[in-house]
């Protein structure tokens, strides 16, 4: 309802400049009408606070609107906060307390955490610990039908908040801020999260709080860091916003996703979180509504990792469609560069990539003419799985993990590109982050899909798509709806974030002479031989 709309102001480090902040608030109210409250994050008091503060504490002066502040971030200002559990400091100025939830009469929920992250235990009085964060999380997550809080106030930035996002300027979000605050934000899912302390203004693009295709849509979070009051660089330190409490909103309106929404910057934390979750709320349904339950043996599904089928007889394999013209990858075709072939199975073969990212960059290809993984018969799919398992074992023996991708767009024969990456170079999370970050830069929505699902569950035959798969089974998927950069997969892997060989992003720049290619293929064949099931079957 209209009456539930609440107009708030949030500000960064006041540092004792009370006249400056309250003067600015009065000016804004004179121009734009009354606001309900002012929320202050960062250092409210500073080294020169005493003279101005005395006038407010004595009642000689009064804050123009109800003002709520966080506690001390250093030893010098601890004495301004007499009661750790929160108290009125002066008329219209309230210290919220060390941690907790403030609920206004409108139903608006504001979660808050005072201080900075403790670097050792026991920490100083102006710090918070993992225990403080855990207790605040538990107090909220245990409430029935918890969906998130309206506002979260912390003084430090959350670590890694800039992942998948617009630049934070000179602030390095991978080093700045607190991991505990990131964990808190990931769990509490605030609609607005305000922080300060870095003397910088940063309004991050909104990020989503659910995994697309795996969880029901949820509201987005807007993170806003505010500069210090009265700074000479004219950086923004006061932020005005209107908000309707989550509890009063139409659920469909609440979960609307803005066009510029990004992936969740704390997705690593979400994955590492314990699997036990709070009970599902009435509006939510379990993730299996989106994908059939892969634990139930329904239909004739292929066995994973090429396990035996038992007594069941495979159906007669359908003949693959014939190519409409010359095909570079059908094994029977005269166009195939057979000197690059390194292994031939019953339904598939392996070949070194022409102009590969590395000498052991290989392709898994069906012998017959199939356009994409989605079109494969169960027999061919089963052999693709066997090749994946063999390549995983082979590359792991060499201290590498593979990254596989397929681009079913402007291609007529399925090519599964398999590129090894040294295990000590990056983690599987680093690889996923690199793909998601570069996809976002190019307005490509690359979504994580469940590890044990097949691409056929999210893409119909004939659908253009791009997907990435790690040798752990983790997958990222993009449904291509318009144009798509043909070299996208190579560009990400060649980028500084991964192999750091940007000059190899285009295969045409990497093509070798035929004798060199043949020598590389012979070397690969020799090394792969102990892992090659096609030589034993």
UniProtKB/TrEMBL annotation:
Region of interest (Disordered), residue spans: 254-283, 298-323
Superkingdom per UniProt: Eukaryota
Molecular function as annotated in GO: RNA lariat debranching enzyme activator activity
Any one of the GO CC terms: post-mRNA release spliceosomal complex
Gene3D superfamilies noted in UniProt: HIT-like
Basic and acidic residues compositional bias, start-end: 302-312
Example GO BP: mRNA splicing, via spliceosome
Residue ranges occupied by any Cwf19-like C-terminal domain in the UniProt entry: 316-424
InterPro entries: Cwf19-like (IPR040194), Cwf19-like_C_dom-1 (IPR006768), Cwf19-like_C_dom-2 (IPR006767), HIT-like_sf (IPR036265)
Cited Pfam families: CwfJ_C_1, CwfJ_C_2
Residue stretches making up the Cwf19-like protein C-terminal domain: 442-533
Family affiliation: Belongs to the CWF19 family.
Full protein name: CWF19-like protein 1
């Amino acid at each position: 309802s209209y009456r539930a709309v609440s107009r708030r102001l949030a500000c960064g480090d006041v540092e004792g400049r009370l006249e400056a902040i309250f003067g600015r608030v009065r000016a804004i109210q004179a121009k734009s009408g009354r606001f309900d409250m002012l929320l202050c994050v960062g250092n409210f008091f500073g080294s020169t606070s005493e003279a101005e503060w005395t006038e407010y504490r004595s009642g000689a002066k009064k804050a123009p609107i109800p003002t709520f502040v966080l506690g001390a971030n250093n030893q010098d200002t601890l004495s301004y906060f007499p009661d750790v559990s929160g108290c009125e400091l002066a008329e219209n100025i309230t210290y919220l307390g060390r941690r907790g939830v403030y609920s206004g009469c409108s139903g608006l929920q504001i979660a808050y955490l005072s201080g900075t992250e403790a670097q050792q235990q026991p920490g100083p009085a102006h710090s918070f610990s993992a225990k403080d964060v855990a207790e605040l999380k538990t107090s909220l997550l245990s409430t029935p039908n918890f969906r998130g809080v309206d506002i979260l106030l912390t003084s430090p930035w959350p670590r890694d908040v800039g992942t998948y996002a617009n630049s934070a300027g000179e602030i390095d979000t991978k080093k700045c801020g607190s991991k505990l605050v990131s964990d808190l934000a990931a769990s509490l899912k605030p609609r607005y999260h305000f922080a300060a302390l870095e003397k910088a203004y940063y309004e991050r693009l909104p990020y989503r709080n659910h995994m697309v295709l795996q969880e029901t849509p949820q509201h987005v979070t807007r993170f806003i860091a505010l500069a210090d009051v009265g700074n000479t660089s004219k950086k923004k330190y006061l932020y005005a916003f209107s908000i309707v409490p989550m509890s009063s909103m139409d659920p469909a309106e609440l979960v609307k996703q803005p066009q510029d929404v990004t992936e969740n910057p704390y997705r690593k934390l979400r994955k590492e979180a314990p699997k036990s979750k709070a009970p599902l709320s009435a509006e939510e349904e379990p993730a299996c509504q989106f994908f059939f339950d892969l634990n139930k043996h329904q239909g004739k599904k292929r066995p994973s990792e090429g396990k035996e089928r038992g007594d069941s007889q495979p159906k007669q394999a359908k003949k693959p469609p014939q190519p409409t013209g010359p095909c570079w990858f059908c094994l029977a075709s005269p166009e195939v560069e057979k000197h690059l072939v390194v292994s031939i199975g019953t339904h598939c073969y392996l070949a070194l990539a022409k102009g590969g990212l590395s000498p052991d960059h290989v392709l898994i290809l069906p012998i017959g003419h199939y356009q994409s993984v989605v079109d494969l018969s169960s027999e061919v799919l089963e052999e693709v799985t066997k090749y994946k398992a063999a390549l995983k074992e082979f590359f792991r023996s060499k201290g590498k993990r593979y990254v596989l991708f397929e681009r079913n767009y402007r291609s007529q024969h399925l090519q599964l590109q398999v590129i090894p990456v040294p295990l000590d170079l990056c983690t599987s999370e680093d690889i996923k982050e690199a793909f998601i970050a570069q996809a976002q830069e190019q307005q490509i929505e690359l979504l994580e899909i469940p590890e044990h699902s097949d691409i056929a569950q999210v893409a119909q035959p004939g659908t253009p798509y791009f997907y990435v798969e790690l040798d752990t089974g983790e997958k990222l998927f993009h449904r291509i709806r318009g144009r798509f950069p043909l070299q996208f997969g190579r560009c990400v892997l060649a980028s500084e974030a991964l192999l750091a060989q940007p000059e190899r992003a285009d295969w045409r720049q990497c093509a070798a002479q035929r004798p060199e290619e043949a020598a590389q293929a012979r070397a690969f064949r020799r090394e792969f031989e102990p892992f090659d099931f096609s030589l034993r079957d």
